[in-house]
């Protein structure tokens, strides 16, 4: 399949963007400014699941968290916190609870980003206020958005330094047990993790996985779903070409994979997250 290829450090930003859409986005591909290192870092993103045992620089953690705190935050409430796990035994325990994924054990650092309404609960009490808004569902939504925005700043900062990252949605597989492992107080829950370390490039192909056509996710002025089936079928073909190029045979189409994943209602334990949130004091009113 000639439209897909591995990308090395010498590939251009234009090649990275073409790989992201597998030439399936010709009408919406933006002009390339090859001198813009931020865009280049963003477009080259890929999840890293093989890490070298090399430690991070001494100030890496603080650099990443400063980047996280430089992100936007709703109403200046700063409703997130992060637990940095570097101890090998605790990291191994967290990996076991988070889908038993070995890359978490390999990476020298795993960050668990948390929705944190505990801090605001305390502040309200210190100021003699009831803090009744903390019982509302929007406060939890706000904290998840804050955490996600902060985490993406960490991802971008890490990759700009030559590090690799992989998000860990498996942190919600055994949410109650992970909260206990991390000693999280009431109204704090780990939403997701992020493994950070030096990529083991010899163990991982330097590829960029394609995404849905931009035409499918970009709606101009008002929603237009008239080409959704066509866009999904185009994506089925492009992702299939990607898998064929990398000799990952026997994969289902994206649509069949998604439909099968959603059919059972079982999400590796994540279907229990609503009860965990209520048990931990999130009102969700």
TrEMBL record:
Pfam families named among the record's database cross-references: Nitroreductase
Highest rank taxon of the organism: Eukaryota
Domain Nitroreductase per the UniProt entry, residue ranges: 45-198
Keywords: Flavoprotein, FMN, Oxidoreductase
GO molecular function: oxidoreductase activity
Secretion signal span: none
Keyword Oxidoreductase attached: yes
Keyword Protein transport on entry: no
Listed InterPro entries: Flavin_OxRdtase_Frp (IPR016446), Nitroreductase (IPR029479), Nitroreductase-like (IPR000415)
Family: Belongs to the flavin oxidoreductase frp family.
Protein name per its UniProtKB record: Nitro/flavin reductase
Originating organism: Aspergillus japonicus CBS 114.51
